[in-house]
Batch of 4 targets.
Target 1
Amino acid sequence: MIAMTIHVMTYSGFDRVQKNWFALTFINILICSLAEFMVHCGYYDPAYSSFLTAVTVIQFSVSPMLAVLFSGALGLHKQSKIASLFFLVTLAVEVCAAPTGAIFYFDENGYARGDYFAIYELIYIISLLYLAISLIIVGRRFHHRDFLTIIMVVVVLLGGIIPMSVYKINITYVAIGMSACLCYIYYNDLIQQDTKEELVSNQRKVSAMQTHIISGLSNLIENRDTETGEHVLRTSRYVKTLAENAMKDGVYADQIDEHFIELMNSFAPLHDIGKIVVSDKILLKPGKLTDEEFEEMKKHAAAGGTIVRQILEGITDEEYIEFAADIATYHHEKWNGCGYPEHLSGENIPLAARIMAIADVFDA
């Protein structure tokens, strides 16, 4: 329980309130276990009977409260506050019964059960049912429910109650300690699985958003130049075919994989996005461009990389942004260094841009 308390207080997966509830649960189990040890495992002297009676009253009052503490740790704060009244009732029963020895007493031989010890057992069983119900309520809040774990918790607790009730073997707090760990693992697992599912869902939304943005930008280009729009669709298919066959042939095996092909297919439509900055007079000119007009046209490559970064910043990670920017910026570079905008040559040209360049020239 000390180890569990240290773990939960240093664990980053819970907020402060959750940590406090779990820590309080583990500490109370520790206190009750120590009380149990003092009563049953220590050297008994009749002179200490009053002190041990007080210790047992506290223990018998707190132990049914562990179910309430569990419910608080599991996030049922409202129920746990209401159920705290259960502790006051239990404490009142124990305090009233202690002088009469109705539930337990100490004589010259040590601890003994009273004629009405079943009252404590009944209260304990009620708290056990409360815990089981709390686990079910918590499970309903999450998408991933594990009723087998709930059954295991109940079985373990019964494994502590039955020996105590029938055979007077005091292993109750061993069972409670094990149950506390199971509840902690159960709740943590529920959170982790739901968090994972939420992350996957968010990733799908982001991916869909990226697809829509890319599609929208491609359509924007197509609206300015019908030929460019058809060119975008064709080159997207070409780059995928080139990359797939390169992977099949083991070309650039350290770079080309399924993820690379997926990115190529996704971002190829953005390769000419920089043409947004080119005037219609130049972009739609039917004849050959003059040297001055061609210089203006060449600016679309560098502009494309800048535009891609500005658009994708904040909606995807840096790897995706750089991949798309490389395609837009460097797809007019040439192996011999005579391309633009930076006159890169050979393998200094990003691989994605080289594949895009092949598809772009082939389609042209």
Target 2
Amino acid sequence: MKKYMLGLLSIPLVASAGMFGLTADAAEKYGKPDKVTEWVFQPCFDSSDAGWANGVVPWIEAVEKATEGSIKFKLQPSGAITSGSEAFSATSAGLLDVTACWASVYGGDMPEGMLAFGMAMGADNYRDAWAAMFGDPKYKIGDLVQKASNDRNLQWVGWSSQGPNAMFTKFPVHKYEDLAGKKMRAGGPQALFHEAVGGAPVAMGGGDIYTAVKLGTVDGTYWDTGGIDDMAFHEVIQYAIMPGWCPAQHQEIFLNLDKWKALNQWQRDRINDVFMSTYFETSRMHAVGVKDALKVLEKSGGTVINMSEDEVKRMRQLAIEKVWPKVAEKSELTAEGVKLWKEFLQDIGEL
């Protein structure tokens, strides 16, 4: 089976220069500007989320260092300025300067975000995900997401794999039929998958999940694996099902496009320079968090179920037949992205 190694993935982002707006103004002085730009950064979540310390903070530190302090951030938790569900649209409108979230989940603001969030049973790991989105010039699905972002007055400036988005349940799951009829907290693309396996998706805010599982209102939840201990889910669920419905869930960072254009070319180049390095740094950090979270679950008496290789293939085939077409019908860009994702999995031997 063909797998992408880091050497291949190190194809520089300069290959996507047009995507990131690298058009220099010859009359502009190239270099660090005299003034300091200050941005308000409010993610769709607060500091309890694994994406805070393992995604947002490293990116902020990298940008401030790369721009030699000419860009500074004021990091605020969800709800400080606007609600988490409104942070994406608020950044588009300029109420916020920067946000981090999952564009495919919150309000359906940008269906193309599903291509970057992670397809149902798509890439097995963050290295393969990078290859499909940016590293291999044959696919470059990331260009589609950037176009959709620009169309919404946003610039996509950061990305991080949070590891598997899996099922955390009160019941064992060894084959996808075991999910049939089960009520699971699921939003956006998670709900598309849960419906495809015959389950009953239930929409609710993250803060309500613990109580809902404890009281039996739902039978479990879909969540990023590295965040289950942060949410104390190990206290109310018995099983973690690996690799989950999305083996490599991702989180994106978006900047208001007007604020991006207001930077000089040197600053834009420096932000682009750290896109790949912070992706691999934060993705590795999340991978460590996944291992630690599963250990917490097992220590509390829970069980990690690893689906068989044959079952993973069955589930991937089901996802491609029933879930991916629903993503493709969202827009012309998602249709193009789904086609490229399918080609990528075929080329690496997963289909």
Target 3
Amino acid sequence: METKNCWSKYSLKQIRELEVFTKDYRDFLDNCKTERECVNNIVNLCEKCGYTELEEYLKAGKKIKKGDKIYAVNMNKSIILFNIGEEPLEKGMNILGAHIDSPRMDVKSNPLYEDTSIAYLDTHYYGGIKKYQWVAIPLSLHGVVIKKDGSTIEMAIGEDEDDPVFFVSDLLIHLAAEQMDKKAAKVVEGEALDIIVGNKPLTIKAKKGEEDKKDKDPVKAEVLRILKDEYGMEEEDFLSAELEVVPAGKAREAGFDRSMILAYGQDDRVCAFASLFAMLEVKDVKRTSCCILTDKEEIGSVGATGMTSFYFENVIREILNLMGKADELKLRRCLANSTMLSSDVNAAYDPSYASAFEKKNASVMGNGMVFSKFTGSRGKSGSNDANAEYIAYIRKIMDDAKVSFQIAELGKVDVGGGGTIAYIMAKYGMNVIDAGVAVLNMHAPFEATSKADVYESMRGYVAFLNAPGM
């Protein structure tokens, strides 16, 4: 079964809508290069659309009713939105779930050092990356530093034209004969991904008649001086810092026809933004709609802000309690009766690397939203395998809304694989399927998507949130 390129079916009105939507998406990518930045921007957007934080309901003991729009934030790194429908919550929800973390390099707790007049920050890479892709490109530094007095220093250095950028050095080709013989996984070692942050030594002028004082590590000392003068940060403050190293620069239109988007972090902020937009777009719903934008998916969804934590469950309990239905059985019914799109990306078929794909079961850029019946690896290990009844239900929703979609796998059997949050949510007994955007260059510093796929995914998410239960 062949799918068709979406562009040929669009009216001029739809193309205008697509361009406006994808411009907003590029702005989101530019302003949201970390989980914390995503949550801050999402809170601002949803409050403008009438959403109220769950904490305000809890403090006031306010009852939750049909039409209420609620959000809950977890440690400033994940967020859940609810649009309360007219049906009882125990009948289930329509859930969209994406992740807002992306592969990157994290600055270590004791990172700053000097070697041969160059100052470095030591890093530990986060998520699955090809390490050689991260050398010799402009990098920016984003995150927070929490001082002992509880005050917060926010950093985003390297995005404005007047900002400095940082980089990881690579060996010049003239001396790289031995390096070029290494396997790709060993060309650049993880411990070699240290970013260069300075080269100018600190000079301390002495009093008249005395020699200038010299620091043992003068370049490191100059970096520390800048950090203190410009950010109020001491070296010890690295201990309580969360600083992420990401590619510098804005999301760009790609191709002579401007049909694509090239940017950092599209896995999975493309699905996160489309899910968020859909959530804010739907108005009165019969069935409660929910949007989960979570953290830590790239490292197994672990930790307090990942999908394996009890945060989602705890929030549902609080909502049921404010509805006067604080009952464990009602919670379990709510979860089991829910339906979910695990909003995550798929690997777009790449003709340059055709041997990694089974073409007739691969997603194609520009051919619409992608549904993945299962992910995992080898013999479907670690996957949620959606059942046929649920896929038929989803097909009808998409066809009725005239959403272009395709169904695809993640590469050839035994070539590799990957996972999403789908299997975690399926443990509640709910129906779940992966649904998102086809991506080229996945997990590279700059990933590529088709504007048409981003637009169709948003339309598909809107149709799903408005759908009746199975």
Target 4
Amino acid sequence: MALTDQVRSIDFSDPGRWPPSLRAAAVAAALATVLLFGTRVFVVDAEYALLRSAQREETELRRRFEQGQRRAANLQAYREQIAEIEGSFGTVLDRLSPTTEIPGLLADLSQAGLNAGLEERLFHPMEEQRQAFYAELAVNLRVSGDYHQLGRFVSDIAAIPRLVTLHDVHIRALEGGAPGELVLDVTARTYRHLEEGEEQP
């Protein structure tokens, strides 16, 4: 009987009657299929999962590296900016008045008006306002004089070594005064740093 006739005569629903060589081949094919499937599930898929994890890690590390590289490239510029900011902050901090200098600063404001030849019409210190790390003292001033005297007054205030800022500036002609005589209403604010232990808002 030819091989093709043997294959045609096999009853696939009854493997017990198959020839021994065909049974051995079927068992070998089944084992090979199970082995290939097991290899795929337990080896290839596990390795593929590790590969994907490594690819994600590589992407994250590459992103971190690029960020670090950008920071490193700008490090000197950052250091220069920090030094500049610290210098500016130190300058401003030096110009904040300690508590003991507030009366002297008030006297300096009054003296600036006298030196400029202005007539002092109002000098009213307000209540101190505390902020996060400094306190602010406002003084309402009203002085009268000519344009150049007012200019000298403002210049003298700017020359005070401690920090003084001018706000709410209003200039008008003096009623009933000589021609060119002006009145300046202004709020001068000076600042001091809070001493250790002072209550902050």
